[in-house]
Design a protein that fits this description.
The structure holds two protein chains of two kinds.
Chain A: H1 14-24, E1 28-29, H2 30-40, H3 49-61, E2 65-71, E3 81-86, H4 88-110
Antiparallel strand pairs in A: 1-3, 2-3
Chain B: H1 8-21, H2 26-50, H3 52-77, H4 81-84, H5 87-99, H6 101-130, E1 141-148, E2 151-153, E3 155-156, H7 157-163, E4 170-183, E5 193-200, H8 204-207, E6 214-215, E7 230-233, H9 235-242, E8 252-255, E9 258-265, E10 278-281, H10 284-287, E11 296-303, H11 309-325, H12 331-334, E12 340-345, H13 346-351, H14 355-387, H15 389-397, H16 402-442, H17 457-483, H18 487-493, H19 500-536, E13 547-552, H20 562-578, E14 582-593, E15 601-603, E16 608-609, E17 617-623, E18 633-636, E19 650-654, H21 655-661, E20 671-673, E21 686-692, E22 709-714, E23 723-729, H22 733-747, E24 754-758, H23 759-801, H24 804-812, H25 817-853, H26 858-889, H27 892-897
Helix pairs in contact in B: 1-2, 1-3, 2-3, 5-16, 6-14, 6-16, 6-17, 6-23, 7-11, 14-17, 14-19, 14-23, 15-18, 16-17, 19-23, 19-25, 19-26, 20-22, 23-26, 25-26
Classes of the chains: A alpha+beta, B alpha+beta.
């Protein structure tokens, strides 16, 4: 049984956090996850197919993500894709990880590692 | 938006990606494989829209990503260390094997046989070809030979004496030459024993780091001019001839009538350089030869640290060419290609350039036999695993990990292979020891001193290697079988159809592999059989009854000129026939062969045979009646007393030559010139006076021995420094040998006839070796054939047995027996076809490789290939038909209820 406490899942691997972030906006199929992650990072993060699905396997086994139904991405297409969605635990873990990172950012600002006015 | 129909490139890329997905563990593939395939397809379309570079980049990134991710996923799916070994698994495997003693015994016999053949073959050939000399740092001791065209030889002592001080890639360099002397018989009347003597430089025992066990080694002063003659004996000679007399050192024995002091006895097994039985000093006169063309020596040395044989070859070739260019040369020596030098280990020099190829081909054949054994045993193990499919599925359902199941199914093959490996090692050791004993008792004197066989470290390593390989193959098959168990399939379909499709695929692949392996093996086996048969039944083309042969080389110092040597041969010929017990003496000197051809054959009518088109040709100088050997006159006249120096130059040619160059007409009276086959120094035209029957002198194993052309010229019209005496004895061979010694000794007390051998003995010995080898091969290939027949039958029976239920359904639905027979025979035919496609290139390779060692006419090779193919077709069809018949005997109703 995977641990039920969100903090037990922290810290997440970067690729796992990226997937959770993408799924936070709603259910997505694999290719959509790759596209959105790449777009959000401005091309800096480009997931490979194998990396994505190995990460998805870990997230599914930890009950943070669950596969949902298989459906066509658009009405005109006959091909059906499997969609993945965040579980309630997955959402809590994503929040916990985001807060952990926010705290780290605050600390980094105080230590003047991040220049004032910088958004990142 | 409607997607475009996938084009062929996308289909190919997706197929490649699906193939890549197989690198992931099965469970992962089952869960995510389809999603990954679809995601890759989406990405491919995106990349295609961007251009070719994007597609290429995507392909590369996907391959690298798959390698990395699959490796991590695979290692994560391995069982933990504590899960790997369970004593109860071992006990379980033992219990299973004990419960089926016939299966256990059969697999042990098959595996031990397969591994035994492989281990024996490897060890036998390794000892004969690759093992370093059994001397201190023996791997670096090399034999140095001069190469002229296709023939290798020793060096002119004069040339080498000038080169040796400049050689930097070799140390402990030495030279030797071999001859025979008569031991005892001081008065020259009776020869007690002819002794092989190796004349060596005084430092030879230091150079090979081997001191005598008795007495002392040679000293520098033993070699000085006028020094008292001394000899060192081999251990065998000391024990056989002198009864192991411990007081032998300092005793005086007679060699060719000269008193010679024994100064030492070498250790057992030492016969350096090749098969020496005694050693005498070479003498400073030879070592520091001051006259070219006088002495010929063989050369050895030890590679210095960092030197390779290739570097040494380059250096010595340059030195030899420079030395040659600085001395006056005979016209014959300057013709043809420039000489090169070969530097090889002694075993490799003995085997020639083909040693490594021979080693590889024979070992590949032996490994194919092991492969056949593995297929047989693998099939039996798979059949047993099928019986336990339900049990495995239940274990899986109860929570056993796939790794654990794999480990559990490994113990059975591991145990079988380890016990068979031990048995195979014992079989190989016994066979090696038998071969060693056989060779040393039957071929005494003809064996190089490093040719000893028995259990040694390389044999044990080979046994370990083959055992590991077999464990990997069989263990891999069984572990894959266990981990591919699917719970649902087994429970739904029952044991008999467990993984039906997959098991069927594996089974068909095994049959195809088996067909390919056995086709190649049989092809090689039959070719070897033909070669062995021809060796055992050599057609000499002349009468070998009571025929003795010996080589004679008059001392150059006593017979320095061409005229003196001519007179020597004529006197020897005359003297021989007056000896009691000798008749039909012929002196034959091999003056040249096509192997060292340096020019063309020319005809009086202006025709010239270019070097590239020259057939195998031999030039013999003869003195004595050829017809007494069975070489009959076909037309014209024989060579006789008229044909002496100063008379018109004549020649007698073989019928093959007459038919080739004067088709349909007589060559008698035509003129020929033979610079191409040895007459470069005698730039003269010869008139053909007769034609004789074809005899394959020295070329007995050629593809068509009788078609080699031969030219006989009178020895009175051509110089020869050495020659072979061929004579027939009337009564006792020993008396005739003694008479020969007397005749040669009378003419030249300094020389003795060498290697007096009976032709019948030579032929019997070669037949003995050929017979021995062919029996060994025959046994191995019979074993392979048995494995192939039983294995193919077993595989087909299992493959068809698994379809019993399907056959029942087909029959219930109205299929006729004939249509089912056709269906199953077609299945056998497909595997036959795949096997043949794989085997064909391998057979061509084997045929080409084989013809390098033993000429086989292409027609014979094609005939053998066809016969082998027909036999394999018959075996596979019979192996398909029998189980088909059995399957059809089961009624459809029973077949449908059949569970396994």
């Amino acid at each position: 049984m995977p641990p039920a406490s969100p903090s037990a899942h922290l810290p997440l691997r970067p690729v796992e956090f990226e997937i959770l972030l993408t799924l936070a906006a709603g259910e997505r199929h694999g290719y959509a996850i790759i596209q959105e992650t790449e777009a959000r990072s401005g091309g800096a993060v480009r997931l490979e197919t194998g990396t994505l699905y190995r990460a998805l396997q870990r997230l599914v086994q930890s009950a943070l993500v669950t596969p949902v139904d298989r459906r066509s991405p658009d009405e005109s297409s006959e091909e059906r894709r499997r969609y993945y969605a965040l579980t309630p635990l997955g959402r809590e873990v994503a929040i916990a990880e985001a807060l952990r990172m926010a705290r780290l950012v605050t600390v980094a600002r105080k230590a003047r590692l991040i220049p004032a006015g910088s958004s990142s | 938006m409607t997607r475009a129909t996938p084009d062929w490139l996308e289909r190919a890329a997706r197929a490649m990606h699906r193939a890549l997905l197989r690198a992931y563990p099965r469970a992962f593939r089952d869960e995510f494989g389809r999603d990954m395939d679809e995601t890759f397809a989406d990405r491919w379309r995106e990349a295609r829209a961007r251009g070719e570079w994007s597609m290429l980049l995507l392909s590369l990134r996907t391959i690298l990503d798959t390698i990395a991710q699959a490796a991590v996923a695979r290692s994560a799916s391995l069982p933990s260390r504590s899960d790997m070994f369970h004593l109860q698994d071992v006990r379980y495997a033992f219990r299973l094997l004990r419960r089926s003693p016939v299966f256990t015994l059969l697999t042990l016999v098959v595996l031990a046989g397969g591994m035994g053949v492989s281990v024996f073959t490897f060890s036998f050939l390794y000892s004969a070809i690759l093992r370093p000399l059994p001397l201190s740092d023996g791997a670096r001791i090399v034999r140095v030979q001069e190469v002229q065209g296709r023939s290798t030889s020793g060096f002119d002592a004069f040339d080498f004496a000038r080169m040796r001080s400049q050689v930097t890639t070799l140390k402990d360099v030495g030279t030797w030459s071999s001859h025979e002397v008569v031991l005892g018989g001081a008065d020259g009347r009776a020869a007690q024993r002819v002794l092989q003597v190796t004349a060596v430089e005084w430092s030879v025992f230091d150079a090979t780091h081997t001191p005598p066990t008795l007495g002392r080694p040679f000293r520098e002063d033993d070699e000085a001019l006028g020094a008292a003659p001394v000899i060192v004996l081999s251990h065998d000679l000391w024990t056989i001839v002198f009864g192991g007399d411990s007081t032998i050192v300092n005793q005086v024995i007679r060699l060719n009538g000269t008193s010679t002091q024994v100064i030492g006895v070498m250790p057992r097994g030492y016969g350096f350089p090749v098969s020496a039985e005694s050693w005498v000093p070479l003498g400073a006169a030879v070592r520091e030869a001051t006259e070219a063309g006088r002495y010929s020596v063989n050369v050895f040395g030890r590679l210095v640290d960092g030197a390779t044989p290739e570097r040494a070859e380059l250096e010595l070739t340059a030195l030899l060419r420079r030395t040659r260019s600085e001395r006056p040369m005979a016209p014959a020596d300057t013709a043809g290609p420039a000489p090169t030098v070969s530097v090889r280990t002694f075993p490799m020099a003995q085997m020639g350039d083909d040693g490594p190829a021979f080693f590889t081909i024979i070992n590949v054949m032996a490994t194919l036999i092991l492969l056949l054994a593995c297929i047989n045993v693998g099939n039996l193990l798979l059949a047993r695993a099928n019986e336990r499919a339900r049990e495995l599925a239940v274990r899986l359902a109860l929570g056993a990990s796939r790794g654990r199941l794999a480990m559990q199914s490994l113990w059975e093959p591991v145990f079988l292979v380890i016990v068979s490996g031990a048995l195979a090692t014992a079989i190989a050791a016994a066979a090696l020891s038998f071969v060693n004993h056989w060779a040393h008792t039957r071929l005494e004197g003809n064996l190089a001193f490093w040719w000893t066989w028995g259990m040694d470290q390389p044999t044990l390593l080979a046994a370990g290697g083959f055992t590991t390989l077999t464990i990997a193959v069989l263990g891999g098959v069984m572990a894959t079988r266990a981990t591919s168990t699917r719970f649902n399939d087994v429970l739904r379909d029952g044991g008999a159809r467990d993984g039906g499709q997959r098991a069927g695929r594996v089974s068909r692949a095994l049959v195809a592999t088996q067909v390919a392996a056995v086709t190649v093996l049989l092809f090689f086996g039959v070719l070897s059989g033909i070669a062995a048969f021809r060796l055992a039944h050599i057609e000499t083309g002349y009468d070998t009854r009571n025929l003795l042969a010996s080589s004679v080389e008059p001392d150059v110092a006593r017979f320095p000129t061409e005229e003196a040597r001519r007179a020597y041969w004529e006197r020897l010929s005359a003297l021989l026939v007056t000896q009691g017990g000798i008749e039909d003496a012929v002196i034959r000197a091999r003056l040249g062969t096509a192997d060292d051809a340096r020019g063309a054959i020319e005809f009086g009518d202006g025709r010239v045979v270019p070097l590239a088109e020259q057939p195998r040709a031999w030039l013999h100088g003869v003195l004595g009646p050829l017809d007494s050997l069975g070489i009959r006159r076909v037309e014209g006249r024989a060579l006789d007393d008229r044909d002496r120096g100063g008379q018109p130059a004549v020649a007698v040619i073989s019928r093959a030559m007459a038919e080739r160059y004067w088709p349909g007409r007589s060559p008698v009276g035509e003129r020929i010139r033979l610079p191409g086959i040895g007459e470069a120094t005698n730039d003269q035209w010869r008139t053909v006076v007769g034609v004789v029957t074809d005899v394959p002198f020295g070329d007995e194993f050629a593809r068509n021995p009788r078609r080699a052309i031969a030219v006989y010229v009178p020895l009175g019209q051509h110089d020869a420094a050495s020659a072979t005496l061929l004579f027939r004895h009337r009564g006792d061979a020993a008396a005739a040998t003694a008479a020969l010694h007397l005749a040669v000794g009378t003419l030249d007390p300094g020389s003795a006839p060498a290697q007096v051998q009976s032709y019948d003995d030579i032929l019997a010995k070669s037949a003995l070796i050929a017979g021995g080898v062919s029996r060994l091969f025959g046994l191995s290939f019979a074993f392979a054939l048995l494995l192939a027949i039983s294995g193919t039958y077993g595989l087909m029976a299992r493959s068809i047995g698994m379809r019993t239920r399907e056959i029942g359904v087909r029959r219930a639905l109205g299929a006729t027996d004939r249509s089912i027979q056709r269906l199953l025979l077609a299945q056998g035919g497909r595997q036959l076809g795949i096997g043949a496609v794989v085997a064909l290139p391998a057979m061509i390779l084997v045929g080409v490789g084989f013809s390098r060692f033993f000429p086989i006419a292409p027609l014979i090779a094609i005939g053998v290939a066809t016969a082998v193919a027909a036999s394999i077709i018959a075996v596979v069809l019979a192996a398909t038909w029998l189980p088909t018949r059995r399957a059809l005997l089961v009624s459809p109703r029973d077949a449908l209820w059949r569970d396994g």
